[in-house]
Amino acid sequence: MSVLNVPNPPWASEDTELLAQSAERFFARECVPHYDSWEAQGCVDRDVWRKAGAAGLLCPSVPERYGGAGGTFAHDAVISRAAHLAGVEGFGISLHNAIVVPYIVAFGSEDQKRDWLPRLANGELIGAIAMTEPSGGSDLQAVRTSARRDGNHYVLRGQKTFITNGQLANFIIVVAKTDPKLGAKGISLFAVESDSVSGVRRGRNLDKIGLKANDTSELFFDDVQVPASALLGPEEGLGFQMLMEQLPQERLLVAVGAMSRIERALIATIDYVKDRKAFGQRLIDFQNTQFELAECKTEATIARVFVDHCIERHLASGLDTATASMAKYWLTDLQCKIIDRCLQLHGGYGYMNEYPIARMFRDARVERIYAGANEIMKVVIARTL
Ligand SMILES: Cc1cc2nc3c(=O)[nH]c(=O)nc-3n(C[C@H](O)[C@H](O)[C@H](O)COP(=O)(O)OP(=O)(O)OC[C@H]3O[C@@H](n4cnc5c(N)ncnc54)[C@H](O)[C@@H]3O)c2cc1C
To answer: Which of 94, 135, 288, 351 is the one with CA 20 to 30 A from 141?
Structure first.
């Protein structure tokens, strides 16, 4: 489903097309009918994770020998796109597949992969990544959560906030300082299985203006004893480097989400203006409506070409940080502008929550803030000038 005049991207294949169709059916059947109640309860039902695992929608880019489908980021991207086109915004499946799991694939030992990946693929484990703390999210080097080595264990102490999947997640990658004196080189990553340790306390499921079906939460680590084997990587102090390696994919994923929402906003608005009448004619017959949508469609087409180009480069050799930052900042800004213009064409109905465009307006706003605020993206891009 696309409203844009673009050919199938070179990175798409018959395989990704079939996966997209299967994901589209899954979200329509298993998520859309429950979405209002998920928004009301502030999280998705636990069992949808198991169902997504059974449907082959978890860990599509994980090698088959670890329980995945042996695909690539292209497979992650089409599942993410299908979720956004269906309006299933709060189900943190894309974060699980394309942000959390890749840390294990890239940096996990053979034992860690064999232990965790099959359970991440079948929905027994739900992923989260805990970087942000109440004292700040943009400055990752300043994290205060500590991890102290104690024999065969580490003891984690600290507080995190705004953590996507925070209430349901039982596999949490925690960013912590193993040596506070060393700055970035003192940061390590730990994979915490919260069901098998004590001291992981879940705080509030935060009351947000959008993404109501996601359990974005506070998390507290009260002297949590994790086995030494929870450390990711061969030694302490590699956490910041690992984050920097993985952030381009996270930023690209956000851009893919923004692109999908832009397409959904256009589809919903074109339908609406063809139906609604004012002054005896359809809204689409006003030249202003046509010009507004012509401009939006043009910008969306340019955006789609750029996103496809970034995906292709990412698949070929890994996308560089600056280009991924361009995609994240520019797409998420554009998304907010286009959704706002589309909402305006809905008149008062655009402000009513029962209309998809109203929900899109609320859900989209955070994209300019998380995964690195857009200002941080510009700092990164500016370094290349
Ligand atoms: C719904 C939601 C889900 C989230 N999910 C997760 C998650 O799963 N895991 C996780 O770890 N975090 C998550 N976050 C946190 C998110 O990544 C942070 O909110 C974000 O990185 C910004 O950090 P902050 O809120 O502390 O803002 P601050 O760091 O206080 O920055 C505030 C603002 O100051 C400006 N600013 C900051 N630094 C600079 C600079 N160097 N130059 C110019 N301007 C600057 C920017 O405008 C920025 O938006 C989530 C947040 C939300 C709202």
So the answer is: 94
Q: What is the pLDDT of residues 125-170, one digit of tens each?
A: 999 999 999 998 999 999 999 999 999 999 999 999 999 999 999 9
Please name which of 279, 277, 243, 266 lies closest in space to residue 372, comparing C-alpha atoms.
243
High-pLDDT (> 70) share of the chain, %: 100
Q: How far apart are CA 208 and CA 211, in angstroms?
A: 7
Distance CA 146, CA 169 (A): 21
Non-local CB neighbours of 191 within 8 Å, separated by 6+ positions: 103, 104, 108, 112, 116, 171, 172, 173, 174, 230, 232
165 CA distance to ligand 1 middle (Å): 17
- pLDDT band at residue 318 under the 50/70/90 scheme: confident
Average pLDDT over residues 171-199: 97
With 0-12 CB in 10 A as exposed, 13-18 as middle and 19+ as buried, what is 50?
middle
Rounded to the nearest angstrom, the distance between the alpha carbon of 39 and the centre of ligand 1 is 23
The catalytic site residues sit at 250
Calpha distance 90→70 (Å, rounded)? 26
pLDDT for 1 beyond 70? no
- Report DSSP state, residue 199: -
Nearest residue (by CA) to ligand 1, atom 4, is 162
Question: How much is the pTM?
Answer: 0.97
Q: Are 190 and 147 in contact (CB under 8 A)?
A: yes
| Pocket residues: Cβ below 6 A from ligand 1 | 129-132, 136-138, 162-164, 208, 211, 216, 366, 369-370, 372-373, 375-376, 379
CA–CA separation, 111 and 114 (whole Å)? 5
Q: Are 252 and 310 in contact (CB under 8 A)?
A: yes
Question: Which pairs count as long-range contacts for 167-170, CB under 8 Å and 24+ apart, including other chains?
Answer: 167/42, 167/43, 167/202, 167/205, 167/215, 167/217, 168/43, 168/44, 168/46, 168/49, 168/126, 168/215, 169/126, 169/127, 169/128, 169/194, 170/125, 170/126, 170/194, 170/195
**267 pLDDT above the threshold of 80:** yes
- Taking the CA of residue 138 as reference, the ligand 1 atom at the shortest distance is 29
What average pLDDT does the segment 234-262 reach? Answer: 97
Contact 101, 123 (CB under 8 A): no
Query: What's the DSSP call for residue 171?
Result: E
